[in-house]
Amino acid sequence: MTGPGREDIPIAADDDVVRIRQVVRSYAQRARLSLVDQTKLVTATSELARNTLTYGGGGSAVVEMLGEGRRQGVRASFADSGPGIPDIELALTDGWTSGRGMGLGLSGARRLVDEFTLDTEVGRGTTVTVVKWSR
Amino acid sequence: MSGVERIPILKIGDVLLASIQVDLQDRDVLALQEDLAEKISATGAHGVVLDISAVDIVDSFIGRMFATIAATSRLFDAHTVVVGMRPAVAITLVELGLTLGEVRTALDLEKGLAILAGLAGDRAAR
């Protein structure tokens, strides 16, 4: 395995979403995720990065390599200091949206990964962390 | 910040072809939507083919834009076919829960053009 084990990426504009997709793709390849799993993880992080930009007013992402025994994985975490999510259950429902998306961002991203953590507080911000492991 | 990446739109007979070869930013997709509407209206094309064989991810924003392009082209009596979707993208879209609405899909450009030719035949028969 070569390359950095961790990368911090600011999310302030459209092209940062593309940059995050590229970084996550390269980490997923290094972690030897299958092509389908790479695509799932990159798609999930694209949704989450856009959420951070659109609803959180921008923020930052951290992408990390994980190693656990023989298994390798990628963790990506998206943090903003935006308004937070008042009703988590509602926000995780398919079809619910407060913005320009299709309401699949959070619920869809959760289905595409192995681990999904949502930490949010109204007025403080939101952090979403996802992990995908090699099989 | 880089500028908008303009996706070239080619005209083949009555069909417009846009082949997406770059990692799309949101504003590139919006620009494509506007350019296609302009071009359909100017040429009277009866069909639009979006070639996504080089696209390695389609998220909900990009997917929704395909549906919007299809709905807009319907207002100009044109149909849209998305061709060349990669298997990994298809599997991911289903799990994401995204349906492409009115958008027709075909395995490749040839089959996409055949679908559009069939639809144009229906239109001529009306």
Overall geometry of chain A comes to globular
CATH architecture of chain B: 2-Layer Sandwich
Spans of chain B of 5+ residues with little confidence (pLDDT < 50)? Answer: none
Cα distance spanning the termini of chain B:
49 Å
Helix and strand succession of chain B? EEHEHEHEH
- What's the tally of helices of chain A? 4
CATH topology of chain B: Transcription Regulator spoIIAA
CATH homology-level superfamily of chain B: STAS domain
The total count of helices of chain B amounts to 4
Low-confidence stretches of chain A: none
Instruction: Estimate percent helicity of chain A.
Output: 25-40%
Averaging pLDDT over every residue of chain B, what do you get? 90
Counted beta strands of chain B: 5
Write out key terms for the chains shown.
heterodimer; A: 135 residues; alpha+beta; Heat Shock Protein 90; 5-stranded antiparallel beta sheet; 36% helix; B: 126 residues; alpha/beta; Transcription Regulator spoIIAA; 48% helix
Structure commentary:
The complex is a heterodimer of chains A (135) and B (126). Chain A has one domain: Heat Shock Protein 90. In chain A, 36% of the residues lie in helices and 31% in strands. Chain A has helices spanning 14-30, 35-54, 88-91, 105-112, and strands spanning 6-11, 59-68, 71-80, 115-121, 125-133. Chain B is globular and about 40 Å long. Chain B has one domain (9-125): Transcription Regulator spoIIAA (2-Layer Sandwich), CATH 3.30.750.24. The model of chain B has no long low-confidence stretch (mean pLDDT 90). Chain B is α/β, with parallel strands linked by helices and 126 residues long. Chain B starts with 8 loop residues before the first strand and ends with a helix. In chain B, 37% of the residues are buried. The A-B interface holds A 13-15, 17-18, 21-22, 25, 35-36, 38-40, 42-43, 46-47, 50, 94, 100-102, 104-105, 107-109, 111-112 and B 1-2, 23-27, 56-61, 63-64, 86-89, 91-92, 95-98.
